[in-house]
Write a structure and sequence with these properties.
The chain has 356 residues and is of the alpha/beta class. Helix content is 35%, strand content 19%. The chain is built from eleven helices and 14 strands. The chain binds S-adenosyl-L-homocysteine and iron/sulfur cluster.
Length: 356
């Protein structure tokens, strides 16, 4: 059970069974717990005082002894293409981001799993200052609920591609995922949830054992260890061959094709030879390649020119790789993960005003 501050349990982090047990412990019939669960999972309500079919005394009790909600949305940054980024302030004053991405009548939420990130990829704003702390399952669920309340429904897809390396916060991430996919919880389809990892091999194996048909995306970014070492520091970097073996294992056990993400960096990993090798990996490991043109942050890396991006894409395709290129969405201001949080941490201007 997620607990914050002075040890109170978080409503968003409790399962239906835990809510039923909680109601009984308060001397209430078990169906009161079920009502609480319906408010959270179906009506996306985290404030017990708004749960009008509960007795007044129980609402007050729940509002006092459960933390509901622990976080709050303190800024919204809207891009011209409809993408919205929410800054969520957590109970301890830390903050994370979640992004709402509309595309072709579908809504995708991009959620954070940690405050900061211990992997510290050299091109990524999220990892710049390392890990501050893990998110609890309830905090991850609150990101989902804050976004869902904004659009009045659950999203069609969830991608764990916000701040943090989810597979280094696996227990809490799996608890949150269980709540999202359980028919007793939010009841989403596991196939519509994508876990993205920088290639944490033991985590990929655990995810394969977890037994849900989750979609897995692995951030490869480089076709050999030498090049990869320029992008990802030693601490949490696994050898490419071990990552690809874990990808094979995931595909076989979960029955799901894996996506390999490849952030294209000017003059670093964007050569025709890299594209050919990536196509070979795609063929041999039955993996889809998702090319991500780099969003400039305050690092030394640059996005390759358009013609290089196009040549790279076509080369992978012509060499028999399955490849897509990420549409550029929300790239206008603070799209690259971690940037909104960093701007606020740096005390820069408020972004509540929306797009420029
Ligand atoms: N830690 C996980 C998930 C969060 S990052 C992971 O690394 O996979 C999600 C994706 O965004 C990763 O593929 C990452 O490499 C990519 N990314 C990070 N910063 C970026 C930037 N500035 N421009 C483009 N992609 C970026
Ligand atoms: Fe962490 Fe992913 Fe950013 Fe790397 S790319 S620092 S793993 S959030």
């Amino acid at each position: 059970m997620s607990r914050v501050g002075h040890g109170l349990p978080m409503l968003a982090g409790m399962s239906r069974a835990e809510l039923e047990q909680w109601a009984q412990e308060q001397g209430e019939p078990v169906f009161r717990g079920r009502q609480l669960a319906d408010w959270v999972f179906h009506r996306l309500e985290l404030d017990p005082r708004q749960m009008t079919n509960l007795p007044h005394s129980l609402r007050e009790l729940a509002a006092t002894v459960l933390v509901a909600p622990a976080g709050r949305v303190t800024a919204v940054d809207a891009a011209e293409d409809g993408t919205e980024k929410l800054l969520v302030r957590l109970a301890d004053g830390q903050s994370v981001e979640m992004v709402l991405i509309p595309a072709e009548a579908r809504m995708t939420f991009c959620l954070s799993t940690q405050v900061g990130c211990p992997v510290r990829c050299r091109f990524c704003a999220s990892g710049a200052e390392g890990l501050v702390r893990n998110l609890q399952a309830g905090e991850i669920i609150e990101e989902l609920v804050f976004g869902a309340r904004r659009i009045g429904r659950l999203p069609d897809n969830v991608v764990f591609m916000g701040i943090g390396e989810g597979l280094l916060n696996l227990e809490e991430l799996l608890r949150a995922i269980e709540s999202m996919v359980s028919p007793d919880g939010f009841g989403m389809s596991p196939r519509r949830l994508t876990v993205s990892t920088s290639g944490i091999v033991p985590g990929i194996r655990r995810l394969a054992e977890f037994g849900r048909e989750l979609t897995l995306a692995v951030s490869l970014h480089a076709v050999n260890d030498e090049l990869r070492a320029r992008l990802i520091p030693d601490g949490f970097r696994y050898p490419v061959c071990e990552i690809l073996a874990a990808v094979d294992e995931y595909r076989e056990r979960a029955g799901r094709m894996v996506t390999l993400e490849y952030t294209l960096l000017d003059g670093v990993n964007d050569s025709p030879a890299d594209a050919r090798e990536l196509a070979r990996i795609s063929r041999e490991h039955h993996a889809k390649i998702n090319l991500i043109p780099y969003n400039a942050t305050d690092t030394a890396f640059r996005r390759p020119p358009r013609r290089v991006l196009e040549t790279f894409f076509r080369t992978v395709e012509q060499c028999g790789g399955r490849v897509t290129m990420r549409q550029e969405r929300g790239s206008s201001r603070t799209a690259a993960c971690g940037q909104l949080r960093r701007r606020h941490a740096a005390g820069s201007e408020d972004v509540l005003s929306g797009g420029e």
